[in-house]
Specification:
Blueprint lengths: L3 E5 L3 H13 L3 E5 L2 H10 L4 E5 L1 E2 L2 E2 H11 L4 E6 L8 H4 L5 E4 L4 H12 L28
Parallel strand pairs: 1-2, 1-3, 3-6, 6-7
Antiparallel strand pairs: 4-5
Length: about 150
């Protein structure tokens, strides 16, 4: 049974691109445009990983993470953000999510993180990445090549 991923972003184009890439990798992918849709999907489907934009309409990633973890405390979460001052709140973030990736997103980095998180043995989760390692090495997005 393929692992399932929920993508949450209010940018429909981003959702479409990431959905296509992740489905080509063999994952089942659900998409939500806001917090309400994300919560409904997690209630209705078995979701293994949530990839979300940190800033969404009427909420932010921490608020949505809290709501989703009330539904399923084992959810793994990756934040995507183009807003670097998010590092001011990284102390709150690093114990709630598995990874923060900064835009522009390198698709290879995203896929690496997805494989790392979903490829682990059942019941094992790596400790959150320390603050000092929460940086993106590449400054340019790399196009996805299959």
């Amino acid at each position: 049974m393929p692992k399932s991923i929920l993508l949450v972003d209010d940018d429909h184009n981003i959702l479409s691109i990431y959905k296509k890439i992740l489905e080509e990798e063999g994952y089942t992918v659900y998409t939500g445009y806001n917090a309400e849709q994300a919560k409904a999907i997690v209630k209705e489907h078995e979701v293994h990983l949530v990839i979300m934009d940190y800033y969404l309409q009427n909420t932010n990633g921490l608020q949505l993470t809290e709501a989703l973890k009330k539904i399923d405390e084992n959810l793994q979460i990756i934040f995507l953000t183009g807003y670097h001052p998010i590092l001011d709140t990284v102390e709150d973030i690093r114990f709630r999510v598995e990874r923060v990736l900064f835009k522009p997103i390198d698709i290879k980095d995203l896929l690496c993180e997805v494989r790392r998180l979903l490829g682990m043995d059942e019941g094992y989760r790596q400790a959150p990445i320390p603050y000092e390692n929460m940086t993106q090495v590449d400054t340019e997005a790399t196009p996805y090549n299959s």
